[in-house]
Amino acid sequence: VADASIPTGRETVPDVLVRGVVDRVAALRENLGPGGRIAAIGVGCAGLINVDRGIVRLSPNLPTWRDVPLRDRLRDALQRPVSLVNDANAFAYAEGRYGAGAGCATGLFVTLGTGVGGAVVIAGKLQGGAHGLAGEIGHVSVDVDGVECPCGGRGCLEMLVGSSRIIERAERKIASGASGAAIRAATGDGEMTTRAIAMAAEAGDRTARAVFAEVGEIIGIALAGVSNFLDPDVIVIGGGVAEAGEVLWEPLRRTFDARVMAPADIRPQIRPSRFGASAGLIGAARFAYDRTTAA
Amino acid sequence: VADASIPTGRETVPDVLVRGVVDRVAALRENLGPGGRIAAIGVGCAGLINVDRGIVRLSPNLPTWRDVPLRDRLRDALQRPVSLVNDANAFAYAEGRYGAGAGCATGLFVTLGTGVGGAVVIAGKLQGGAHGLAGEIGHVSVDVDGVECPCGGRGCLEMLVGSSRIIERAERKIASGASGAAIRAATGDGEMTTRAIAMAAEAGDRTARAVFAEVGEIIGIALAGVSNFLDPDVIVIGGGVAEAGEVLWEPLRRTFDARVMAPADIRPQIRPSRFGASAGLIGAARFAYDRTTAA
Lengths: 295, 295
Known about the structure:
2 copies of one chain form a homodimer. By secondary structure, chain A is α/β, with parallel strands linked by helices. The first copy, chain A, has helices at about 15-30, 70-80, 85-100, 155-160, 165-175, 180-185, 195-200, 205-230, 245-260, 280-295, and strands at about 40-45, 50, 55-60, 65-70, 80-85, 105-110, 115-120, 125, 235-240, 270. In chain A, strand 6 (about 105-110) and strand 7 (about 115-120) form a beta hairpin. The two termini of chain A are about 25 Å apart. Chains A and B meet through helix 8 of A and helix 8 of B.
């Protein structure tokens, strides 16, 4: 119907975010039309979420957030039922029920963006693990000697292929003498983005293609390893970085197929998300709606 | 009641193994006593196992094995019901039902030996994944730039901490000038083993302690990462290498606690296996018995 966004950064504190969301929801209500009402509000948030208590336990890219009762704060401010869920779980809820993973036996759902998130669906059911925190594929270590991650880990997948790392890869290549003209042209006046690198890569730029070849190969190896552990029949990949197109998908699929242990006849299918950038929104909203109407 | 063993190596072909097992079972039958009979035979085998068809699809440390119908070959030769299961699943069956993981909500079971195996139990049920192959934590990549693994992957956990890699670590340290006297004394006349390195480490040898410190830290980081993905409440670790004692467990636990994302109040408990070296045998036998009596 309508959307709005607020930028967040590492320094964003809960008060500021809550105020921003309240303002935007008030503005979006204008679009509802006569008779329209908000049945429930779904919130997808990166990090460790306690769904039952509606609390953000921690969120590696929002380092000031610790045990924030985000659900109740929004519910009190907005006077509507609110559900809080991990953003990758929201993505999996949408894609697993209505999207690219519908009908899978064991589905692995991965979001590639600022963070790298994940969720597992077995027989139609999101797997929460023992405390509702399962799925953090971005914080599986794929380089035990690698750099420290804000989560406390070392060499986490997110530290190798999160969007800011992809930008760093391009910057490092350019600093070491690779041509940066095409990426700069795609970037324009703003800061470099993964989208600009992807556009340059799609247009054939060697520097940009080399960045996505590295990133796709790392994701392919990492997914092959997690696939050996989980044995899914479907892997759905979404998030902004996944929109890069074949420059990412070709090395990713090629590396996955070469590295995964499963014989070809039972190798999982890797599929792009159906709902693209809206998957998390759709999943969080649907999750909130289902919870509210079931309650 | 009684046990017997046959050494296997990379070159062991199915025919030789089947003949060896048949001979040993015939000999073990002598120990059954009057009225004793074999109700079922359980086989735990490393690698990708199709439980329903009783087939070893592949086994990275037995490279000649491809789609071997091991269950039916043993059943035909021994004329008793046979069940074939992955060895780490057998371990988890024993430890998850009767051992260190009994009652866990989400349990991760890990065997450290020649290979590194794993299995997942959720709400008392072994998780097979989409094709019964789940749990291969030894083939999760923890070093995307690392050495190639016989499984086809790169930098698999098993390539860093499988028992032959632990021995290589000791040999490399000694070759670079570290003292090898204590390890050699523990080794005696035979080939170096992880047990000899562990004995030297427990006795205070610096070279051996450094080996297990490295290995424990790598396993700690790797388990922290997989724990972020799975969110278990219990992790049970067994296999021969796990018998090394505190020289392994102290760095493993310390690194795990420092690296895992879960806050301290919901951090999984890491426990040694209850059944030690017999866990796989007990689990495979019990699995076979339960399947036979339920059929």
